[in-house]
Amino acid sequence: QVQLVESGGGLVQTGGSLRLSCATSGLLFSIRRMGWYRQAPGKQRELIASINTDSSTDYTDSVKGRFTISRDHDNDKVYLQMHALKPEDTALYYCNTVILQASWGQGTQVTVSS
Fold this sequence. Notes:
six-stranded mixed β-sheet, mainly beta, globular, 10 strands
């Protein structure tokens, strides 16, 4: 059974930093391209960062240079380091595979105050 458990969200001021974690199980993690997604109120969920099995990465323009995705193959975890946070980064953040997503976890809320 696939499980995705996100954590690390919170309330920060503009310019602050957070590090999100995602614990996975049942995914065949070592062969999956993983991603971080977010869903802001009233908007569709979007893929903002992804990481391949060779740790090459890709980012959507809005987070490029501020967010860093990484993965831990020993512990089947994915991380998202976020710096220079802006109010428009406020959203519910999820991790999942990039192709053939598994059931979504609960997500972790990030709120950036102005």
